[in-house]
C-alpha cells in the first residue's frame, strides 16, 4: 500500500535513518508539540573533547587549508539564500562547490554519535580511543579537504538554514568562519506557512514560533558568550541597506571590499519566495527581484489573535532580538 507521503523524497530519506531514541521527538512533532530542546541547538562539549576534535580537524585538513565560510540561518525562510548569494559575488569566494546547495553537517551530530556507538558495540574496548564526535570531525574535515583539492581557488562557501548543533562549530571547524542570519520570527512563520504546506513533517504555527524562539535564543546566547565566534547578520538590514550590510560582513570576514561588485546586489534573484505560485522544485528556481518585492513585515497582515499567539510564545525573544 502506498502511503500519502511516500512520494516525497525528503520524507522517505528522513524516515530511512530514524533511530529508536528519536521516536518520542517524532511523536511530539506529529501531534504539534515542541520537539527540539536547548541542547539540540547548543550541545555541551568539554574542553578536552573540543581540543581533540580541533586537533583531528586540523590534522585532516592540513596546513594549507583555506578558511571556509559557513552561512547558517536561524530557521528555514530566514534569508540564508540571500546572504550566501550576496557573498558569492565576491571574486575570492567559491560558492557551493560541487553544487552542494546545503551543508547541514552540525545538524547531523546525533547521527555521528550513533555511528560511533555502532562501532563500539562491536568492540567496546575502543571507547577511550574514539571521542563521541570524532566521526563528525572525520567526515567534515575529509569532505572539506577533498573539496579544497578539487577547487583550489578562493574561500569555499556553504550554507544551511539550521542552527542545531551550533555550539560545535568551533570544535569541528576551528579555523573557518561562521555567519548566522536572523530574521523576525513572525515573518519566518508567515513565509513558512505559505511555502511548506502539509506533509508528514509539516509544522504547526505553534511549532514554528517555538522553534524560532529556541533557535534565536541559542544564537543570541552564543553571540553574547563568544562575540568573535560568529558574524551576526539581520536579514532586514540586508534588505533595507544591502551595500552597508555587505561592507560590514566583508570587513569581518577579511574580504577585500574594493573587489566586491556592490552594483550587482540589486540584480540578485529571489529563490523560493513564499509568494511564488509554482509548485515543488519550480519554486526554488531563481526569479527576478521585482520592484514590488517586499519581504519585511508581511506578518502585519495577520489577524490580531494570531499576533497575540506569537507574542505569547516568543514575545520576550522578539524583544531581545530587537524586533519589538
Give me some keywords for this one.
324 residues, globular, disordered N terminus
Written description of the protein model:
The chain is built from 13 helices and 5 strands. By secondary structure, the chain is α/β, with parallel strands linked by helices. The chain has a 5-stranded parallel β-sheet, with helices on both faces. Helix 4 runs parallel beside helix 7. Mean pLDDT is 89; it is low at 1-6.
Write the layout of secondary structure elements.
Layout lengths: L8 H8 L6 H8 L7 H4 L5 H15 L7 E5 L6 H8 L5 E3 L13 H14 L11 H17 L4 E6 L8 H4 L4 E6 L2 H11 L9 H21 L5 E4 H6 L1 H12 L50 H17 L4
Parallel strand pairs: 1-3, 1-4, 2-3, 4-5
Helix pairs in contact: 4-7, 9-10, 10-13
Amino acid at each position: 500500500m502506498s502511503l500519502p507521503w511516500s512520494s516525497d523524497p525528503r520524507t522517505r530519506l528522513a524516515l530511512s535513518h530514524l533511530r529508536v531514541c528519536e521516536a518520542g521527538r517524532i511523536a511530539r512533532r506529529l501531534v504539534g508539540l515542541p520537539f527540539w530542546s536547548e541542547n539540540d541547538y547548543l550541545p555541551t562539549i568539554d574542553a578536552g573533547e573540543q581540543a581533540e576534535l580541533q586537533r583531528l580537524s586540523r590534522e585532516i585538513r592540513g596546513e594549507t587549508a583555506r578558511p571556509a565560510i559557513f552561512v547558517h540561518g536561524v530557521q528555514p525562510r530566514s534569508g540564508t539564500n540571500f546572504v550566501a548569494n550576496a557573498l558569492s559575488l565576491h571574486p575570492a569566494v567559491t560558492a557551493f562547490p560541487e553544487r552542494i546547495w546545503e551543508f547541514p553537517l552540525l545538524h547531523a551530530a546525533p547521527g555521528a554519535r550513533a555511528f560511533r556507538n555502532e562501532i563500539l558495540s562491536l568492540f567496546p574496548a575502543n571507547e577511550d580511543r574514539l571521542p563521541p564526535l570524532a566521526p563528525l570531525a572525520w567526515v567534515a574535515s575529509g569532505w572539506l579537504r577533498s573539496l579544497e583539492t578539487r577547487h583550489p581557488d578562493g574561500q569555499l562557501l556553504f550554507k544551511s538554514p539550521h542552527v542545531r548543533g551550533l555550539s560545535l562549530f568551533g570544535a569541528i571547524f576551528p579555523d573557518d568562519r561562521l555567519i548566522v542570519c536572523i530574521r523576525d520570527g513572525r515573518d519566518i512563520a508567515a513565509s513558512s506557512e505559505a511555502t511548506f504546506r502539509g506533509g508528514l513533517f509539516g509544522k504547526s504555527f505553534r511549532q514554528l514560533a517555538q522553534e524560532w524562539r529556541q533557535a534565536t535564543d541559542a544564537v543570541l546566547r552564543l553571540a553574547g558568550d563568544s562575540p568573535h565566534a560568529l558574524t551576526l547578520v539581520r536579514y532586514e538590514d540586508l534588505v533595507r541597506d544591502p551595500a552597508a550590510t555587505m561592507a560590514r560582513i566583508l570587513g569581518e570576514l577579511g574580504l577585500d571590499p574594493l573587489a566586491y561588485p556592490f552594483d550587482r546586489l540589486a540584480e540578485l534573484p529571489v529563490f523560493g519566495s513564499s509568494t511564488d505560485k509554482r509548485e515543488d522544485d519550480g519554486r526554488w528556481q531563481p526569479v527576478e527581484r521585482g520592484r514590488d518585492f517586499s519581504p519585511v513585515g508581511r506578518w502585519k497582515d495577520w489577524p490580531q489573535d494570531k499576533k497575540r499567539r506569537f507574542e505569547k510564545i516568543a514575545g520576550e525573544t522578539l524583544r531581545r532580538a530587537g524586533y519589538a
